[in-house]
Amino acid sequence: MADIKNVVILGDSMSDIGNKWLWPSGELGRLIQAMGLGGMRVNETGRFSDGKNWTDFLVEWATGQTLMWGNRDLTIRRSNDFRTLSSFSVLDVDSWDMQPQPKPPSGSNVSLDDLLEYINEARRQTGTVPSPPQIRYVNYAMGGAIVTKDWMPKAGALTYLREQAEDYIAQRSQVSRPFEGATMYIIWIGLNDFVTALRPDYDPGKFNTPLPTRGDYAAWRAWSQTPGNLTNGVGVFPAVAEIQSLVELINSTFPPDAKTDNHFMVIDLPSVYNAIRYMQGLATPAKIAEAQLIDPITQHYNLMLASLVQHWPAGPNAPAADHVHLVQMSAWMDYLSNNLATWKLSQQAQVPGVKPFYNPGVPPEPTTDPVPSAMRRAITTSDLGHPTEAVYSLMARYFVTNLLANGHTLGRLNNDAWLKNAPFGNQPFLPQG
């Protein structure tokens, strides 16, 4: 299919590398959290995790580079290059089987001797300083973002997926280095529409015409265009329709020949029952009742999303059938939840205050993780809703499996290298049973 040279992430808290944390409403969330009154839960680098999220693993496995390194300040500084698109949003790709090239020294105390040592070491290894392969990477995901722009829940405190796409389009038109090669757009969003904003599903009693088959995207599209049938803020169809609209906006914005270089992977929604705050036997009665309302709606969203990907409506800006793929994270997370011991996970939440472990860390960061392994392998952070780094790594593992299964490569990720280097390489790569 394609050797991916550019990666663009659009989504919400699962993929966020600090965008919400640095947003004005994010500052308010941090203040509320510091006062012990709830609010959003991010670690000291802005991830909704005790360490890395799934996109951090994707970057590391594809390039050998890491955004989470050194300490808090260095990680934030490093991540800033990839939160918006610029000439700095580029990662070198280190080979799996070759000695990594020495990296230029950095920091405020770099001396001339440090620079000379770096140059001499590079010459000793290769004779010349090589130009490694590179991947352009940018991550616009924003915690709390919702898909649909036909309503304004939470008094406008939530942002929209369309704003991320529009930021990307504006910034891409300004970068001095043109895009070359295939671009992969990864879209994972929707839970905030149904969990945070509690967007309801369609109520058949409100409409005069019969509803179409629930999973039939084209039929819902025709039905929703009947005058008087569509009410703002109701139903999952507008969320899926917005994803269609933004994919086609990206395809229509840049030169026509660029459309053939555009590839898309959209990820469906895991069940809310995989989060401890909604688990039977662990959650409060109110949360169990809330989950019973939410789960059927997210299942409907997943059906509609699958129908869109499988039967994308024809049009001048529609992606080719082999240029858009669905990642069924819902099935994978259900499988993990039913086999926690296989993946060395435990059905518990972390205690508050678990910090990231930086490897390698810059002193005085600890050289070994002070947090017990059992706590790291819990399934959610202390907010009872967001996955831990351990779970994110398995999400990323499944995503990479789908990427390769659809014929793509990314940096040093190809089928041979993946089978050799994937974590838990002796375990299934796809849901079992």
Provide a quick synopsis of the model.
With 433 residues, the protein is α/β, with parallel strands linked by helices. The protein has helices at residues 24-34, 54-63, 72-80, 112-126, 161-172, 191-196, 217-224, 237-253, 285-310, 329-338, 373-376, 389-405, 415-421, and strands at residues 2-11, 90-92, 134-139, 182-188, 262-267, 324-327, 346-349, 378-380, 408-410.
Keywords:
single chain; 433 residues; alpha/beta; Rossmann fold; 2 domains; 7-stranded mixed β-sheet; two-stranded parallel sheet; 13 helices; 11% strand
Specify Rg, calculated over alpha carbons. Answer: 22 Å
Largest sheet: 7 strands, mixed
CATH architecture of the largest domain: 3-Layer(aba) Sandwich
Helical percentage: 25-40%
Q: Summarize model confidence as the mean pLDDT.
A: 86
Count of helix runs: 13
- Global structural class: alpha/beta
Supply the CATH superfamily name of the largest domain.
SGNH hydrolase
CATH structural class of the largest domain: Alpha Beta
Number of strands: 9
What are the segments in which pLDDT stays under 50 over at least 5 consecutive residues?
Answer: 227-231
Indicate the proportion of strand residues: 5-15%
What count of structural domains? 2
Distance between the termini: 29 Å
